[in-house]
Structures are given as structure tokens and as C-alpha cells.
Amino acid sequence: MDDATEEVGMGRTGGSAAARLAGFGAASVLVFTAAWTAGGAVGGAVGSGVETPTAGAPADAGDVRGDGGVLASGLATGDVTTGAGGVLSTAAGYTLTPVGIVYPWRDPTEVAFTVTGSDGAPVTRFDTPSDGSGVMDVAVLRRDVAGYQRLRATQGPDGVWRAPVRFPGQGVWRLYAGFTPTGGPHLDLGADLHVPGTYGAFTFPAENRAGLCGGSDQQVRLDGALVPGGESRLFATVGRDGTPVTDLEPVDGGAFGRMTAVRQGDLARFPVRPEITGAAATDRSGPGVAFAVSVPAPGSYRLFLDYRSGGVLRSCEFTLPTAPGS
């Protein structure tokens, strides 16, 4: 399969896939309502939402995918000045600085960066989130809001953070790092990285609440509305060929799903909080997961969700505009 077929194929669902999605979309609201009513305890609510990029990239754009990436450590709450994560590279005296800014396309590589304080020295002490997730929430996203990948970074004795990654598309990528320096505020900083080559951007539908996830064997749907200026509730549901999936496993922090919202345009990211946390490793849930999110302004948002089912970590994407008239 050549590059053009591989990438454009990501944005299409064949006849059988489309039929599965149509059936799932019609039934998912009823399935989730029943699950949510019965699922007040751990093990009762789960789900996920997905979107595959639509066909809109030239043959040489690179096969950016939304289904790759490793589950990140916890979700950042945004920088102290705007609440919008990843927009600034410096805030409150702390700076995110990539060690290098040029990376290869498709080849396995390693992102390296430091967080420095006002004295210019690398910060080495960070608080660990109370939910048990990792110290540093690291992700990358291409400037066309495609290819979101959560990365797992570790800090070396030199104060440099390193995370393995494979960039599946050429272009400019945003590096996100969310953290709480000991004695400082919680921050979510960002910096640009570059993957040289011919670049063509993806286009996404104005709204996409349902799609395929995890190798097209599971169908997912997102319900709820994004209301700017207040807290919104989102409900994600997962099924397989019309049957609810009930073997969802906890991910980092004991939640049955992790989601991040990214605003199209400035790539500001916002945490989407799971309403059930603290699950034990042996707990299972499904088919729905409830989330809460606060977005400050009207606009279009891409939402990226990770969940685990059958021992497989699956990644899904949605596009949601804010509610009309809000």
C-alpha cells in the first residue's frame, strides 16, 4: 500500500464499517442510559469516543493517525494565567525547552526537553498527582489537530526528560508538558517541534461523535454538549457489533478512560475529568464512561480518549463544536 492509499484510507469507513456505525449510533444512547442508571459504583460506567481523520490529505502528507500513542501520565489543568494548556512555553517563571526541535518522520526516536526555573537551571523536583498518575503529562499533536499521542517520559540525572515517540506525519508538531513543580503552581506548557518533509493538512468534519476504535472491532460514541464558560458533562459509550462492551479496564489513576480536549486554532488543551476514579486493577466496567470538562470560550474542539479493553489500549477521536447559542 502506498502512502496515498494508506493515509486517505484512514478517513473512510467502508460499507460494513459504516453499517456498524449507523446501528451503533442509533442504539448507543439507550445503552448508555441504562448503564449509567445502573452504574453509580465503580464498574458501572465506561466508554469512549472516536473519530478517524477524513480524507483530505495529499498523498505526501504522511500517515498521521489518531489511534497511536502510549497512555500518558495524568491530565494537566492548564497554565496559571489563562487556564488553556500548551499555549505558552513560559509561565510563572518556568520554561519548557526542547533539547532538539527537528525529528525524523516515521522512524523511532526520542523527544527530549527540560523544565527550567527562573534561575535557568533544570527543575528536578515535581509533585506526584494524588490520583496516582505520573509526574509529567506529555503529549504531541500536529498543527492540523491530527495524530495526538500521549507519551511516557522519564527524567534523567541531568534533569532532561526523555520520551520515546514515532512521528507518523511530516509538519509542525506541538509538544505538551503538564506538571506541578514542588512549591510551584500546576502548569501545562507547550513548544513546537518540526518533522521535515512535504506537508498536507487533514480536514475534519464540523462534528463527529461516533466512529471505530481499536482496529475497527469496537464502535464508540460521545454524547453531551460542550457549553463554554461552565462545566459540561460528556458520556462516552463503547460497543462491538451492537453489543455493549463490559470488559473495560482501569487506566492510570484508576479511571476507566482518559480524555483530553484540544481547541482548534491555538491548540490549547483542557483536561476532561473522568467522574469515576480509584478503581482497582481487577475492576471492570462498561459500556459507558462519564466525564466533566470546562472550556472557556466558543469554538471547535477535538477530543482524544484512551481506554483499555481486553488488555488492549485503544485510542479514539471526536470533533465537537460548542453548543449553539451558548
Produce the secondary structure layout:
Blueprint: H1 3-8, H2 15-38, E1 90-91, E2 94-98, E3 108-116, E4 137-142, E5 149-151, E6 154-155, E7 161-166, E8 171-179, E9 187-195, E10 210-213, E11 218-224, E12 230-240, E13 243-244, E14 248-249, E15 258-263, E16 269-274, E17 288-295, E18 300-309, E19 312-321
Antiparallel strand pairs: 1-2, 2-3, 3-7, 4-5, 4-8, 6-7, 8-9, 10-11, 11-12, 12-13, 12-17, 14-18, 15-16, 15-18, 16-17, 18-19
Description:
With 326 residues, this protein is mainly β. Helices cover 9% and strands 36% of the residues. It has 2 helices and 19 strands. It has helices spanning 3-8, 15-38, and strands at residues 90-91, 94-98, 108-116, 137-142, 149-151, 154-155, 161-166, 171-179, 187-195, 210-213, 218-224, 230-240, 243-244, 248-249, 258-263, 269-274, 288-295, 300-309, 312-321. The strands form 3 sheets. Strands 10, 11, 12, 13, 14, 15, 16, 17, 18 and 19 form a 10-stranded antiparallel β-sheet that branches. Strands 1-2-3-7-6 form a 5-stranded antiparallel β-sheet, with no helix packed on it. A 4-stranded antiparallel β-sheet has the order 5-4-8-9, with no helix packed on it. The longest helix is centred in the N-terminal third of the chain and has 24 residues, at 15-38. The N and C termini lie far apart (45 Å).
Q: Beta fraction of the residues?
A: 35-45%
Number of helices: 2
> What is the gyration radius calculated from CA atoms?
19 Å
**Would you report the number of β strands?**
19
**Average pLDDT rating:** 79
Ends apart, CA distance between termini: 45 Å
So what's the overall shape?
Answer: globular
**Major sheet summary line:** 10 strands, antiparallel
Poorly predicted runs: 1-63, 65-82
List the helices and strands in order.
HHEEEEEEEEEEEEEEEEEEE
Kindly name the structural category.
mainly beta
In percent, how helical is the residue content? under 10%
